[in-house]
Every structure is written in structure tokens, then in C-alpha cells.
């Protein structure tokens, strides 16, 4: 059988630096575990715009559709702020999500014990935290029509449309229930049914799917604003949270910070199964391109490395190998190794991106 294929789109800012460390882990899987991948690389975001005048070429889009999984670094930077909206780096990312139809975005927020004191919340609130946000990723206000900036009388009006169909809600709800069954069997659905019709429909459809096929899973509903409050008050009440594209964007950043650093959080974006049974998939760290520290070798590669671990688990059914990578990360943190973003107010001496990658490889070797 052919090796599984990966397309690496490292992107902008710290994307290429953190992705270099992922490449070390990919080669380690080959040399130490005999798990080989066919890896190709291409451009996305600002760097693609610089090279081709578009943040994602049709050729790159076509490659992304063919591979087993896409690994993405980060896109964007101040250099591109003034570009027309249609060619902004972020449009490349959104096109990938939309055209690959990656409707289910899994964003785990897990607090590593070694970092529990680093959260802005008290240790007992976050220690041992393990929740999963399932964010709808291909619809809602990010994509709804009409949208644009229009003239109305003598002033301009900016318009975006929150739009969800029943089937869009049902499929992401189903993925959340499925996931919950493999975890602690609880789903909390978040919307604003008190003020938005799309929220009323969301709540209805999630309830229907639950009634029909998932009565064994515990389901609750919360308004998204109350959900944000509950996430900071007592996050351990949650197991899986399912929510729309925009609320998911906000709540996942909030949940990420509970764990200490945005530099720790991976994500998986999954679509329907392909002919080979694997889901369409893209894996990316939740953090952005961090232009302020790009090119300095300071960035934390852990979120990107853990995103590859998610690829092992969700695309390639290699949960044991994924756990091995996660263990290695836990080990280096327990050993006190820290990139700059993981230093508390008391300071300490940080290690760089490459040193963190090397330490993770050393810890991987110890798992053999
Ligand atoms: C994310 C990011 C993206 C989003 C941006 C970069 C388009 O914030 O993945 O959370 O808003 O979805
Ligand atoms: Mg975001």
C-alpha cells in the first residue's frame, strides 16, 4: 500500500519555524517507528500572495484535495493588512476549509499539569482540564450572503449574514455526539437562541439529532455568553462543547488561554470520509502567525506538533503513536523546559523553537 500523504502548508510568520519541528517528528516516525509519509510542501497565505498574487493557487487547492491530510502552520502578517479583502492571507485558509468542506473543527483545551500554575486562573480550576470544543467551520457568519460594505443613503453599511441550514447543524452535532461517546459522554451546545433565529434552529436541530440517535449522551444547552462565563468560572463542568463558527472562534481562544498559552493548542478540521475511508482533514495550531516574534527562533512549536499528533489519531487511526507524541510533550514540560511564551511572571531562561523540537525528539526516543 502507498504511504499516507501529507501536504505541508507552513504559511507565514512563525508558521515555517514551528513546522520545521513537526518535520523532525515526521522523520522520527519513519526512522524509529517505520511509519513513512509522502510529504509535499506548498505555499499558503501571504507568502503565496507574494509568489503568485493569490493566497492560495488553484493548483495548491487541488493538491490539498488529493492528499490524506494537510498540515498548516499559520497565515497573515502586518505586511498584508492593506491588501484587498479578497486576497488577504486569511482568505487562503478559509478557502481550504470551505472547499474541502471541513465542517467539524476539533479544538481540545487540555491543561498539562506542569503548566497549571501558568494559567491566569487558579490551579484547582484548570489542573487536569480536558475539554473539546467542536466548532462548525464552513458556514455561519463567516460565509453567509449577503455580505459586503454597501452605500446606504450618504453613509456606508457593513453587512454579514449568519446563516445555517438544518443539515449543516445536524452534521456538526453528530460529530460532537460521536466524539463525546469516546470521551465523557457529555455535550453542551452553545448559541444565542434568545436573540437569534439561527440560534433557535441550532437548538432545535441539535435536540432532534440527540433524540433520534444519541440519547445515551448527556446533552445540555447554554447561551454562548453564559457559556463564556461558565468556561472561566468552572471549565471542568464541560466535556464536549459544540457551537457555531463565530462563537467557536471566540470560545476556543478563551478555552485555550485557560491552559496557559495559546502556544499549546492544536486543532483538527475534519470533513466527510474520502474514497479511502479517511476523512478530509487539515491540522493546524490554534495560534496565529505571531509576526512580532517571527524569524527569531523563539516560537513554541508544541501546538503544531500536537496538531500532527491529532493527524495520527484522526486521519491515520494511530492513537497509540499520537499518545506517544503527547507523552513526549508532557515529559519535556515536566522536565521544566519552556519556550518564552511558557515562562511565568517569575521568569527563567527560555529555550528556542529548535531546542524544544529536539527535546521532544529526545523524549520520543525514551518511549521506545
Ligand atoms: C482561527 C483564526 C481564523 C478564524 C482566522 C485566521 C481566519 O482565528 O482559526 O481561529 O477566524 O477562523
Ligand atoms: Mg481564532
The tally of helices reads 12
Let me know the largest β-sheet.
Answer: 10 strands, mixed
Task: Supply the helix-strand structural class.
Answer: alpha/beta
* Name given to the CATH homologous superfamily of the largest domain: Isopropylmalate Dehydrogenase
Q: What can you see in these coordinates?
A:
- With about 375 residues, the protein is an alpha/beta fold.
- It folds into 2 domains: about 1-105 and about 265-368, Isopropylmalate Dehydrogenase (3-Layer(aba) Sandwich), CATH 3.40.718; about 130-260, Isopropylmalate Dehydrogenase (3-Layer(aba) Sandwich).
- The chain contains 12 helices and 12 strands.
- It has helices at about 15-35, 45-50, 60-65, 90-100, 125, 165-180, 195-215, 225-235, 245-260, 300-315, 320-335, 355-365, and strands at about 5-10, 40, 70-75, 105-110, 130-135, 145-150, 155-160, 185-190, 220-225, 240-245, 270-275, 280-285.
- Strands 2-1-3-12-11-4-5-10-8-9 form a 10-stranded mixed β-sheet, with helices on both faces. The chain has a two-stranded antiparallel ribbon with strand order 6-7.
- Strand 8, helix 7 and strand 9 form a beta-alpha-beta unit.
- About 45% of the residues are buried.
- The mean pLDDT is about 95.
- 3-isopropylmalic acid binds near residues 90, 93 and 249.
Task: Give a topology summary.
Elements: E1 5-11, H1 15-33, E2 38-42, H2 46-52, H3 58-66, E3 69-74, H4 89-99, E4 104-110, H5 123-126, E5 130-136, E6 144-152, E7 155-161, H6 166-181, E8 186-191, H7 197-213, E9 218-223, H8 224-233, E10 240-243, H9 245-258, E11 268-273, E12 279-283, H10 302-314, H11 319-334, H12 353-366
Parallel strand pairs: 1-2, 1-3, 3-12, 5-10, 8-9, 8-10
Antiparallel strand pairs: 4-5, 4-11, 6-7, 11-12
The structure holds 3-isopropylmalic acid and magnesium ion.
Amino acid at each position: 500500500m502507498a504511504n499516507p500523504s501529507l501536504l505541508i502548508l507552513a504559511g507565514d510568520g512563525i508558521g515555517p519555524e514551528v513546522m520545521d519541528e513537526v518535520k523532525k517528528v515526521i522523520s522520527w516516525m519513519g526512522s524509529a517507528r517505520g511509519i513513512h509519509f509522502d510529504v509535499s510542501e506548498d505555499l499558503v497565505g501571504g507568502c503565496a500572495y507574494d509568489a503568485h498574487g493569490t493566497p492560495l493557487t488553484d493548483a495548491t487547492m487541488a493538491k490539498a484535495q488529493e492528499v490524506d491530510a494537510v498540515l498548516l502552520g499559520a497565515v497573515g502578517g502586518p505586511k498584508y493588512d492593506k491588501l484587498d479583502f479578497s486576497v488577504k492571507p486569511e482568505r487562503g485558509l478559509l478557502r481550504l476549509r470551505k472547499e474541502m468542506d471541513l465542517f467539524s473543527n476539533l479544538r481540545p483545551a487540555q491543561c498539562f499539569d506542569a503548566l497549571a500554575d501558568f494559567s491566569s486562573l487558579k490551579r484547582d480550576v484548570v489542573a487536569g482540564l480536558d475539554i473539546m470544543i467542536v466548532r462548525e467551520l464552513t458556514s455561519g457568519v463567516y460565509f453567509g450572503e449577503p455580505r459586503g460594505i454597501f452605500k446606504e443613503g450618504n453613509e456606508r453599511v457593513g453587512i454579514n449574514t449568519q446563516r445555517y441550514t438544518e443539515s449543516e447543524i445536524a452534521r456538526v452535532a453528530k460529530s460532537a455526539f460521536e466524539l463525546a461517546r469516546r470521551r465523557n459522554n457529555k455535550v453542551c451546545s452553545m448559541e444565542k437562541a434568545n436573540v437569534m433565529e439561527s440560534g433557535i434552529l441550532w437548538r432545535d436541530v441539535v435536540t432532534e439529532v440527540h433524540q433520534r440517535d444519541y440519547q445515551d449522551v448527556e446533552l445540555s444547552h447554554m447561551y454562548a455568553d453564559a457559556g463564556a462565563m461558565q468556561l472561566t468560572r468552572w471549565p471542568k463542568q464541560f466535556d464536549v462543547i459544540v457551537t457555531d463558527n463565530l462563537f467557536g472562534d471566540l470560545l476556543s481562544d478563551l478555552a485555550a488561554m485557560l491552559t496557559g498559552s495559546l502556544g499549546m493548542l492544536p486543532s483538527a478540521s475534519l470533513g466527510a470520509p474520502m474514497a479511502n475511508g479517511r476523512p478530509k482533514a487539515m491540522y493546524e495550531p490554534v495560534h496565529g502567525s505571531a509576526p512580532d516574534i517571527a524569524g527569531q527562533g523563539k516560537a513554541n512549536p508544541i501546538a503544531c506538533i500536537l496538531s500532527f499528533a491529532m493527524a495520527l489519531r484522526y486521519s491515520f487511526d494511530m492513537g497509540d503513536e499520537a499518545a506517544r507524541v503527547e507523552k513526549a510533550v508532557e515529559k519535556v514540560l515536566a522536565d521544566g523546559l519552556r519556550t518564552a511564551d511558557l515562562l511565568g511572571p517569575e521568569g527563567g531562561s527560555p529555550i528556542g523553537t529548535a531546542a524544544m523540537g529536539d527535546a521532544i525528539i529526545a523524549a520520543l526516543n525514551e518511549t521506545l
